[in-house]
C-alpha cells in the first residue's frame, strides 16, 4: 500500500512538473516572440538612424550653400553697379566676338560655331606637340619622357581652363 501511495505521489509531482514545464514553454515562446519583435524594431531604428543621418548631411550642405548664397547676395547688394556701366562692359565683351558664334553661322548649320578637336590639333597649340626635342621651349619644360610638373598644362589638344 505504501508503494502505491509513493507511486501516486510521484505521479502527482510529475504531472505538476509537466504542467509547470508547459507554462514555462509558453512563457519561453512569448519571450522568443518578444525578442523577435525587439530585433525587428532594432532594425527599423537603425534604418531610421541611417535615413536621419543622410537627411542631416543633406540639410547641412543645403544650409551651407544657402549661407554662401546669402553672403553673395549681401555682397552684391553692397557693391551695386549701374546698369549703364554693365551695358558698356557687355558691349566690350561682345565686340571681340569671343562669346558669340561667327556672323555667318546660323542655327541648323552643320558647321560648329566652335573649333572641333581636329581643328584644335591643327592650330598653334596642337602643333607644339610636333616640335623636335631640341626646341628651346621644350627644353625648358622637359622632354617627352619626363613627367610634367603639376603647374604646367599637358598638350593634349584640349583647352584646360
TrEMBL record:
Subcellular location: Nucleus
Skewed-composition ranges (Polar residues): 131-161
Protein's UniProt keywords contain Transcription: yes
Pfam families in the record: Med4 (PF10018)
InterPro entries named in the record: Mediator_Med4
Biological processes per GO annotation: regulation of transcription by RNA polymerase II
Transmembrane segments: none
Segments of this protein annotated with the region Disordered: 126-161
Gene Ontology CC terms, in alphabetical order: core mediator complex; mediator complex
Domain of life of the native organism: Eukaryota
GO molecular function: transcription coregulator activity
UniProt keyword annotations, A-Z: Activator, Coiled coil, Nucleus, Transcription, Transcription regulation
Main location: nucleus
Coiled-coil spans in chain: 20-65
UniProt record similarity statement: Belongs to the Mediator complex subunit 4 family.
Role of this protein: Component of the Mediator complex, a coactivator involved in the regulated transcription of nearly all RNA polymerase II-dependent genes. Mediator functions as a bridge to convey information from gene-specific regulatory proteins to the basal RNA polymerase II transcription machinery. Mediator is recruited to promoters by direct interactions with regulatory proteins and serves as a scaffold for the assembly of a functional preinitiation complex with RNA polymerase II and the general transcription factors.
Self-association and partners: Component of the Mediator complex.
PANTHER family linked to this entry: MEDIATOR OF RNA POLYMERASE II TRANSCRIPTION SUBUNIT 4
Protein name per its UniProtKB record: Mediator of RNA polymerase II transcription subunit 4
Amino acid at each position: 500500500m505504501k508503494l502505491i501511495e509513493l507511486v501516486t505521489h510521484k505521479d502527482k509531482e510529475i504531472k505538476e512538473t509537466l504542467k509547470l514545464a508547459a507554462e514555462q514553454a509558453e512563457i519561453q515562446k512569448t519571450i522568443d516572440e518578444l525578442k523577435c519583435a525587439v530585433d525587428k524594431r532594432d532594425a527599423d531604428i537603425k534604418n531610421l538612424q541611417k535615413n536621419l543621418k543622410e537627411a542631416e548631411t543633406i540639410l547641412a550642405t543645403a544650409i551651407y550653400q544657402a549661407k554662401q548664397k546669402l553672403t553673395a547676395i549681401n555682397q552684391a547688394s553692397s557693391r551695386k553697379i549701374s546698369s549703364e556701366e554693365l551695358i558698356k562692359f557687355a558691349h566690350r565683351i561682345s565686340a571681340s566676338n569671343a562669346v558669340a558664334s561667327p556672323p555667318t553661322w546660323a542655327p541648323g548649320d552643320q558647321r560648329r560655331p566652335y573649333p572641333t578637336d581636329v581643328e584644335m590639333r591643327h592650330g598653334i597649340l596642337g602643333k607644339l606637340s610636333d616640335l623636335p626635342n631640341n626646341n628651346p621651349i621644350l627644353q625648358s619644360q622637359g622632354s617627352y619622357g619626363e613627367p610634367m610638373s603639376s603647374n604646367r598644362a599637358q598638350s593634349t589638344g584640349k583647352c584646360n581652363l
